[in-house]
Amino acid sequence: MPSHVPFRKWLKILAKIFLGLLLILVLIIASGIAFIAVRSHQTVMLPTPTGPYAVGRMEYDWTDQSREDSLAPRPGTKRELVVWAWYPAVRPTGAQTAPYLPPKWGDLNDQQHSAAFGLKIVQSYDSIQTHSFAHAQLATNEARYPVLIFEPGMGNIPAQYTTLIEDLASHGYIIFAINPTYSANMIVFPDGRVAEATNAGKPGDNDNLEVKGNKIVSVWARDVIFTMNQLEHLNATAGNMWSQHLDLTRLGIFGHSFGGATSAQVCHMDTRCKAGIDLDGTLLGDVLQTGLTKPFMVIQSEENPCDADCHTFQQGVQAILRTVPAGEAYHLNIKDTRHFNFSDYAAYFSPLRLLDMLGPIDGVRGLQITRAYVRAFFDKYLNNTPSPLLQGPTSAYPEVQFFKP
To answer: Keywords of this protein's UniProt record, alphabetized (predicted)?
Structure first.
């Protein structure tokens, strides 16, 4: 019996060690939960626009009666789009800025990004402050303003690129940004209806990305062309804010990821596109076979490591850009960025950095660089304003690397 005493003591020691480690683990988890809960609700002000104009924002609900929606869950559904506009505005006296997302949009997006017990794993949308004023009056400094059309990345909505879009609007651009119905994770129509992503609207893990991607980019490209048609109608119709103020001879298209691929496809399909930008998007559609005849810029993140798919992508980009008229093609990347550094995720609390979907660059710095080069490109090709940023590397932005098309 006495010989068992040391063994029992050893068991007690092991039990105490186990309980101590368990307590430490519980404390670490509790501290992590507490940090996320506090951090996700702290007020975040998006980076300030750098232009002279205040920024207005409004929403449209447009239905293309000529087109059945192949992405919709019910056959025969007409293609319906929520389109947001950001524009140079007259600053309203005493007005508060618009919420990052309207209440129902924000609530549903928060729910989609909640873990157990309602814990937010990204920034709560009601804690993000914009610089836009809802339904503000269009600034009258210019008779006509250049127009941009924007498409977000797959699953995203344009509001998640507010930092980039507000800056362009503050410099005198009118931006119409499309929410891609049934491809965005969720959108809310003005009457309260909700449309979630469908299997037809998003590539799945078992899908052939090229085949399905080509189908979806065809739908998105027609969304942009439909939006162009709507803008022509608004511009020609008296009695609305845009009447004769949209300079559709100076129209550019840009987008992130899948939206970037869409911009290239539209610039191939429609001569109304005068210039386009692809922010870190894999090119799709028959533009790969036909090439481009319009000024075009590709801005990439710095993937690490750059595997075989990355090299294939680089070759595809180079092949497309070599079809662009001489001197009008631009291919660059931004050091220490990843795919989502082009979105507002870089400016607020998000776990994407832990997943290597946000790079080690300071998020606001990365967005500052993106804003500078996007505006420099459109300034040159829509406003005839040259920029030294497009001539090659600069000490102001050493993170930017140029590739020769």
So the answer is: Hydrolase, Lipid degradation, Lipid metabolism
